[in-house]
């Protein structure tokens, strides 16, 4: 949809030019798609704006910029976030804007909203559809994903993983990666996603820096018709990361892999034997749930800490208000979870 030129301040720098209506028009042509009335009528953003008597997007932007506390409180309600204990204040900026404390006194574990809520309300609804390069297909309902996540969480607990412990997830895009990620959040552990295409040195750097005590990986995966030996790369990485005590391995290709007894454990032997009952831990709003690293192309990878009331809420708000993902939509995710 074409938008008007932004109000860009004038600049003394000759390299910076203010867009004109004419060149802005050329940048926005051709128009690939315009929403039909039926699209507008079911728009989640429009619904949100109407609930708050907001006439247009510009007014919404102005109000959100002027009163961030109002906006994120309204977003929390609109998304139906499950608060284990309600917050008393959205923002505390007493230490300065860069050190804002969010959702003061609130307790939120994002897994309660992302998984538990749906497993309780719509247990038979499809939560996950997976298609592998080799043609394999798997489907999980919310009830099934909830059970698998709980079993994975209990398996991690059996390995000594608890709140605040780091778990590296170096896996291909398979259903188990979803359960493994949610399982960490469920028990208050902090997961570190690692791109499946990284070599041993890059994996080892992230393992050492995060202090991961467990790495979850796979025997291998398919890429352009060939098998990528993931377990061998994980072995080489762990050799340079002495804090890793256990490696939990998903059997994806079924090929022969090197094995270190006592350290290495098969997912299919450890997870399915666990109880499917694992309560979601009560966590503070700003408790960390993820430690994700930059690519390291310009230096040592830098870890960014994300908390339960941060990235998950913004991600959900993006899906709702920007991408307009509806309750009956299926979202196709293509990229590697560590990328």
Order of helices and strands: HHHHHEEHEEHEHEHEEEHEEHEEH
Rounded mean pLDDT is 92
Identify the overall geometry: globular
Q: What's the gyration radius in Å?
A: 23 Å
Secondary-structure map:
Layout: H1 21-27, H2 37-41, H3 44-51, H4 57-66, H5 68-79, E1 89-92, E2 101-104, H6 110-121, E3 126-131, E4 137-141, H7 142-158, E5 166-169, H8 175-186, E6 190-193, H9 200-210, E7 214-218, E8 221-223, E9 226-228, H10 230-238, E10 246-250, E11 264-266, H11 267-270, E12 288-293, E13 303-307, H12 311-322
Parallel strand pairs: 5-6, 5-7, 7-10, 10-11
Antiparallel strand pairs: 1-2, 3-4, 8-9, 12-13
Helix pairs in contact: 4-5, 6-7, 6-8, 7-8, 9-10
What does the model show?
The protein is built from 12 helices and 13 strands. It has helices at about 20-25, 35-40, 45-50, 55-65, 70-80, 110-120, 140-160, 175-185, 200-210, 230-240, 265-270, 310-320; strands spanning about 90, 100-105, 125-130, 135-140, 165-170, 190-195, 215-220, 220-225, 225-230, 245-250, 265, 290-295, 305. A hairpin with a 5-residue loop joins β3 (about 125-130) and β4. α6 (about 110-120) packs across α7, α7 (about 140-160) crosses α8 and α9 crosses α10 (about 230-240). The longest helix is centred in the middle third of the chain and has 17 residues, at about 140-160. The two termini are about 30 Å apart.
Keywords:
single chain; 339 residues; alpha/beta; five-stranded parallel β-sheet; two-stranded antiparallel ribbon; 12 helices; 13 strands; 17% strand; disordered N terminus
């Amino acid at each position: 949809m074409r938008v008007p030129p932004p109000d860009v301040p004038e600049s003394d720098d000759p390299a910076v030019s203010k867009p004109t209506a004419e060149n802005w028009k050329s940048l926005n042509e051709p128009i690939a798609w315009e929403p039909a009335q039926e699209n507008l009528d079911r728009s989640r953003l429009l619904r949100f704006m109407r609930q708050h008597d907001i006439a247009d997007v510009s007014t919404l932007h102005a109000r959100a910029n002027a009163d961030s506390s109002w906006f994120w409180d309204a977003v929390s309600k609109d998304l139906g976030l499950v608060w284990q204990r309600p917050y008393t204040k959205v923002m505390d900026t007493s230490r300065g804007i860069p050190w804002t404390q969010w959702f003061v006194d609130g307790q939120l574990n994002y897994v309660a909203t992302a998984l538990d809520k749906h497993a309780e309300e719509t247990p038979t609804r499809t939560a996950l559809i997976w298609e592998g390069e080799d043609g394999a297909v798997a489907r999980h309902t919310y009830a099934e994903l909830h059970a698998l996540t709980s079993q994975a969480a209990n398996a991690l607990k059996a390995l000594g993983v608890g709140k605040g412990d780091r778990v590296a997830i170096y896996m291909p895009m398979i259903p188990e990666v979803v359960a493994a990620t949610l399982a960490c959040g469920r028990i208050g552990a902090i997961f570190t996603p690692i791109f499946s295409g990284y070599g041993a040195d890059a994996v080892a750097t992230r393992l050492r820096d995060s202090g991961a005590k467990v790495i979850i990986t796979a025997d291998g995966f398919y890429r352009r018709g060939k098998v990528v030996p993931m377990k061998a790369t994980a072995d080489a990485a762990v050799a340079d990361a002495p804090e890793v005590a256990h490696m939990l391995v998903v059997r994806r290709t079924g090929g022969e892999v090197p094995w270190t007894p006592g350290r290495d454990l098969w997912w299919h032997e450890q997870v399915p034997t666990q109880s499917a009952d694992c309560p979601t831990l009560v966590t503070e709003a700003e408790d960390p749930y993820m430690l994700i690293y930059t690519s390291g192309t310009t230096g040592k990878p830098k870890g960014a800490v994300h908390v339960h009331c941060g990235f998950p809420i913004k991600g959900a708000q993006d899906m709702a208000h920007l991408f307009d993902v509806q309750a009956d939509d299926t979202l196709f995710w293509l990229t590697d979870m560590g990328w």
